[in-house]
Fold:
Amino acid sequence: MDNPTQSQNTMILNPDVVQPNRLAYLSAPLTAPLHISGTPVVQLRVTADKTDTNLGAILVDYGSAERVNHRASGEGIITLDTQDCWGETSPTDDGCYRQTQKRVATSDVELVTKGIMDAANRQSIRTAVPLVPGQAYNYSFPLLPEDYVFQPGHRIGVIIVGSYSQYSSQADQSRANLQFALKTSNIVLPVVGGTAAAHAAGL
Structure:
């Protein structure tokens, strides 16, 4: 059931626990690094019991690692008090710049990328067409482009939700119940090295 107030942390944490407002799918632990570079695409076949709903998808890396915390203040960078100076000094520029270091922390989960779609705009971003309750529709939408390496032992997670208020400020308030046809739903990952690299990593 769509929950327009569900937080992003609730969506992605504890993927092995069944929750009523999200679906969570996990790969087996990877046996080798898996590098993606490009735009993942989610393809879903969904039936809703309302005339409108939102759809969201999140690609997640589950596994303990020291990661750059680019979602904290400074976008993963700490500005230091020390400086490097390059080139000549002028009246408006002394050529000196503060040094930086990465803001790192150990965590068990990393949100890799995400995407959303308004189901009523499945045919056009300009024109909304209401859904027919109980009728199945095919949806295809991209996640944000990303270059990322999943490490051996980690699991790839795909989280499916309705509204995603922390991605978009306009969460749908219909609270639709959603049914997914799993045989015709999938995510296409831009794996560097293609199918052979995916198989080598255990997928």
